[in-house]
Amino acid sequence: MQPRSQSTAILGGAVSGLAVAHRLSRLDRFDDITVFERQDYNDRRVNCGEAINEAPLIPLDHTPGNGFVNDVEGFELRIFSGMDRSPDEAPLSIARFPCAAGYICERDVVERRWAESLGGCGVQFETGTAVSREAYRAIVSEYDYVVDATGEPALTLKANNAVDNYTGRMIALNATVEGDFSTYRRWPRIFFEGYLGYSWSFPKSDRHANVGIGWAGEQRPEHYVTALQEAARRNGFTVPDRSDINIYTIPRGPSLAPQYVSSPADRVFLVGDAAGIANRYQGEGICQGVRSAYLLGDLIETNQEAAYPERLYELMKPEYRLASIMRSAWVEHEDPELIAVIADAIDGLSIEAITRSPSRVLGRLMRHPAVAFRLFADPGVLRHVLRAYTDRWEYESGAGNRSTDKQGECLEA
Ligand SMILES: Cc1cc2nc3c(=O)[nH]c(=O)nc-3n(C[C@H](O)[C@H](O)[C@H](O)COP(=O)(O)OP(=O)(O)OC[C@H]3O[C@@H](n4cnc5c(N)ncnc54)[C@H](O)[C@@H]3O)c2cc1C
Question: Which terminus in the chain has less CB density within 10 A, N or C?
């Protein structure tokens, strides 16, 4: 028999943690929802790419005062022959992907305003102190539910000495710069230049932008900061000062191995980056984190939270399949011209489609048989497709670490 009123501790109060708090605050049975956030919401908290592709997921008015500063029409992908090129060289392809509900945000403002709004609905906030491993254990025994939204690496995995269960990492750098961004304010730019990753220039206004670069593969530059500054020169956006540049890692996994996203006996559940669910190809993770939080909330509402790992797996599957196939297009061919014709073929599809709908992307490619043939004639690409459609995309040999096989066994059991 369930107690009439219950308590939830949410560890980490960025987008994923706030989304859980929002969802659970709508359930009468919780009389105590407490968010433990190590930072203060008035601090400068995050400075990531700050593209929120599906703003309606966030229950705030999408106004500049709430941090939604640039209502974009979509994103423009520019494909170049490589990094060793003249600044005047024209792109091999310019493809545009509409994003009707997309914004470039001041994310610290979004999170501050969201926290304020939840505070007004009875959610408690304990800010300014990181939850230690010891405090974590006390919280787990005290609260009916614990949701770990501490990002990467998750506090739960730290407390259980399991952080090496992440399957890999992407590295990303970014900075906020000033300049003239008026010509492409509504179409933020992404630059692909012949490595597994990309650089970006996302205007927040006509006069300032978030710029950055990230690598999703094994091939990494010797000097990360210099690589971002050179990308800025090549691609015509303001070169950030070394002192303004932040370096981050983005997790890949352990997301889909059930034993790492929940511990039903302890009623501990991982959401967002803590669960390692950022996109495997382009690193987007804000909407992914919010979706995982809402999924968990839906399941808690109907007492089905034990199904969370499987339902998360189902939710993420199309996106991970597509990311796996997109990755393979570069990894197996290493041919910028092929990437350019693929970009031309999928030009005009929405960001939602190119992120989460393999069938729409593959459908478009099939309308260009010569491109599809070039892409899929490669046995390596076919192997990736096969792995993706047999749900083994996460666990390619060499992609992870010593626990990769263990996770693979778990999933395939
Ligand atoms: C450079 C870069 C650019 C990116 N660009 C984009 C983009 O444009 N669009 C997009 O969708 N995604 C982007 N991402 C990914 C995105 O930032 C993450 O996926 C997203 O932040 C995940 O949100 P989260 O709430 O799950 O975790 P986080 O944002 O990592 O938040 C975790 C929270 O937990 C708190 N915390 C951690 N440990 C403790 C502790 N012990 N006790 C208490 N609190 C704790 C932290 O202070 C933080 O507030 C980018 C990432 C990087 C690195």
Answer: N
pLDDT value of position 45: 66
Closest of 397, 396, 390 to residue 412, by C-alpha: 390
Q: Read out DSSP for 190-250?
A: EEE-SSSEEEEEEESSSSEEEEEEEE-SS---S-HHHHHHHHHHHHTSPPPPGGG-EEEEE
State if residue 172 touches ligand 1 by the CB under 6 angstroms criterion. Answer: yes
Tokens of 406: 């263990």
Q: Please state, in angstroms and rounded to a whole number, the distance separating the CA atoms of residues 35 and 220.
A: 37
Ligand 1 centroid to residue 315 C-alpha, Å: 20
Rounded to whole angstroms, the Cα distance separating 37 from 155 reads 12
Q: Is the CB of 272 under 6 A from ligand 1?
A: yes
276 lines ligand 1 (CB under 6 A): no
The CATH superfamily holding the domain 6-311 is FAD/NAD(P)-binding domain (3.50.50.60)
pLDDT of residue 276: 84
Distance 12 CA to ligand 1 centre (A): 9
Q: Is the CB of 150 under 6 A from ligand 1?
A: yes
Domain spans in the chain, listed from the N-terminal domain onward: 6-311, 314-412
Whether the full predicted model's pTM is greater than 0.90, yes or no, is: yes
- From the CB of 251, is ligand 1 less than 6 Å away? no
Ligand 1 centroid – CA 252 distance (Å)? 13
The Cα 49–Cα 75 span in angstroms is: 13
pLDDT by residue (tens digit) across 116-156?
A: 999 999 999 999 999 999 999 999 999 999 999 999 889 99
The residue ranges of the chain whose pLDDT is under 70 are: 1-4, 44-47, 164-168, 251-258, 393-413
